[in-house]
Amino acid sequence: MTEGTPSLSAERARSAGLAFTFLRGALAAGLGLSALTVLVMVLWISSPAPDNGPGGALHTAAGLWLLAHGAELIRTDTLGGTPAPVGLVPLLLTVVPVWLVHRASRDALEADEGRSAPSAASAFALVTGGYLLVGGAVALYARGGSLSVQIPSLLFPTALVVAAAAGAGVWTASGHPIGPPPSWAPVRLHEELARSRFRERADTACRSAAAGVAALLGGGALLVAVGLVWHASAAQQSFVHLSGDWAGRVSVLLLALVLVPNAAVWGAAYGMGPGFALGTASTATPLAFSGRPALPVFPLLAAVPDQGPGTVLNWAAAAVPVAAGVTVAWFTVRRAAPVHAGRDEAWSPWETALTAGLGALGCGVGTAVLAAAAGGPLGTRALAEFGPSWWLTGAAALAWTVLLGVPGALLVRAWRLRGGGRGPARETAEAEGAPAVRGPGEAPEQLPQEPGGGGRRWWTRSGRRDTGERTEPVPASGTMPASGTASPSGTASPSGTVPVPVRASGPRVSATASGVRAASATGGAGSEGGNAEPYDFLPTEPWHEPTAARPPEEAGPSGSA
After folding, report:
1. Tell me, what's the pLDDT at 195?
2. 115-146 in b/e burial notation, b at 16+ Cβ within 10 A?
3. pLDDT confidence of 434, banded at 50, 70, 90?
C-alpha cells in the first residue's frame, strides 16, 4: 500500500515539513511539562495529607515549569495574605527545557523521507513559535492557582531563553559555522576573518572561557560541600525539621538537588570576593559576614559561614578564582604553543595574550549570566534580595582571569619555547633536504650566490605553497637548456648555473646575463622582498594563460620562456 501511494508535490511536501517543524516545538514543550507534571503528581499522591486536590497539584506543576524558564511567579497563599514574588530559578531544572528546545531545532534541519528540510531561519522561527504557544497556554492556566506568573517575565527572560536554545540548536545542525561579517563591515574585518587562523583563535577563546566557567563552578561546589560537612549537624536538623514523613523528605531532597548548581554559583561568587546577599541587610564575603541575615530553614543554607570577620580558612576560598585563571591560561597555551612545537609553529605573544584575554572576557560574561539566574527574590522586605550580584560577580571573574590568565599564558608559552628549537616539522624538512616552512615574520632563507653574478643574492618567496615546482639549472648566459637534470635545492651545477624554481605552468622565467628573475603571475611574488601571500580563498593558479599556450607572436623573445 505504501509503494502504491502517489508522492506529494514539492509544494505540499514543503508545507508538510514546515507544519512538522512547528509541531516539533510544541512537542518539546509538552514533553517537559508532562515530565514535571508526572513528578509532582507522584509526590502529591504519596503525601499522606495533601493540602489541595489534583487541580492544585496541576497548577503547581504548571508554575514550576514556567519557573524553570526564568519566569517570576507570585505566591498568593502566604501566612500574612500579602502576595510574595518567587524569582529564584532552580538551574538544574532549567536544563530540561533548554535541552528539549535545542534538540527540537537541531533535528528539524534533518531531511526526512518524503519531507525536505526547512531553512535555518524557518526552523528557528517555527520551533520557537510552537514552544512559546504552549508556554502561553500554560501561563493562562497557571493564573488560577496559588502560583501565578508575572506577564512581563514571559517576554524576558522566558522567551529569550527559548530563542537562545533554539538558535543554538540551529547553529549546531549547521556545523557550528562562523559566518562572514555583513557587507557594510570594513574591508579590514573581512580580510582578518578570511585568514585561516581566525577560526582557531575563536575556538580557543570559546574553549578557554567555557573551561574557566567550569572551574569556577567546580570550585564553588567544592566550597559548598566543605561548608556542609563543616556544619553537618545544622544541615541535618534543617532537613528533619522541614520533612515529617518520607514523601516530604523526598520532596526536600529533590528541591535541594535542583538547587545544587545555584549553590555552586554562590560558592564561586564567595570565593571571588563579591559574595552573596542573604536578604537586604546581610552580605557574606570572605572578609566578613555582616548584617542580620534572613535565612530560611533549608539544608543548603547550612553551608553559609559563621557570622563575624573572616579567618584564614575563609580567605582560602580565593583558590577558586586562581584555579579559573590557570585554567584559562592552560587552555590557551594548548593551541598557542603545543608541547613539541617550535617558534615557527607557535603563536606570537600578541596573539596568545589576545586569545587569553578574549577567553577571560567570555568567562566573565558567562559567570555574570549564571549569577543573574542563580539569585532572585524569595519574598518581600528582607527576602527581596537573595543571591549574588550579577555585575559584581561578572566583573570579579573578568578581573581574576585577566590578571592571572594572560600573564600565565605568556609565561607557559615562553617556557615551552625556551630552547628556541625549530620544531619537528622544520627539522624533518631540513633532514630530507626540502625547503623548510617559515613562520610569520621570519626572514627568508638565502639561496647560493651565482658565480660571477655581481654579488646578487636570491630570496625565496615567503609563504610559498607546494604547487608542483621543479628546479632546473639555468646557465649564466641567459639561455635555458633544452634538456637537463634538476640539481638539488641549494646547490649550484658544475657548469656555473644556479637552481631556480620553475613552475610546471603559469609563471614565466626569464634569464639575463647578470642573473635570473622569476616573475610570478600574481604580481612579482618572486622578486626581492616579495613577502605577499595570497589569501586562502583566492586561487593560486596564474591569472593569465601559460606562455606555451599563447600564439608565437605573443610568446616573447626566444631567450625567455
Report:
1. 67
2. bebbebebbbbbbbebbbebbeebbeebeebb
3. very low
What burial class does residue 28 get, using C-beta atoms within 10 Å of its C-beta: 0-12 exposed, 13-18 middle, 19+ buried? Answer: buried
From first CA to last CA, the distance across the chain in angstroms is 71
Phi and psi based region of residue 417 (left: phi greater than 0; alpha: psi -120 to 50; beta: remaining): alpha
Please determine, for residue 68, whether its predicted confidence score (pLDDT) is greater than 90: yes
DSSP reduced 3-state for 348: coil
- What is residue 276's predicted lDDT score, i.e. its pLDDT? 95
CA–CA separation, 225 and 78 (whole Å): 32
The residues, any chain, with a CB within 8 Å of residue 95's CB and separated by 6 or more, are: none
CA distances from 461 to 153, 519, 529, 531 (A): 61, 11, 8, 6
Q: What is the side-by-side order of every strand in the sheet holding 73-75?
A: 84-86, 73-75, 147-149
| 346 alpha carbon, distance to own chain's centre | 22
Residue 54 CA to residue 64 CA, distance in Å, equals: 15
Total residues belonging to the chain: 561
CA distances from 108 to 123, 169, 190, 196 (A): 6, 9, 31, 31
- Over residues 71-86, the mean pLDDT reads 84
Q: Where would I find the beta strands (DSSP E) of 335-431?
A: 386-387
What cell was used for 59?
497548577
Angle at which helices 246-258 and 260-272 pack, to 10 degrees? Answer: 50
In single-letter form, the type of residue at position 71 comes to: A
Is residue 355 within 8 Å of 205, Cβ to Cβ? yes
Residue 519: enclosing H or E segment and its boundaries?
strand 516-519
For residue 63, count CB atoms less than 10 angstroms from its CB and return exposed for 0-12, middle for 13-18, buried for 19 or more: buried
Cis amide bond preceding 338, omega within 30:
no
Locate 350 and state its grid cell: 600578541
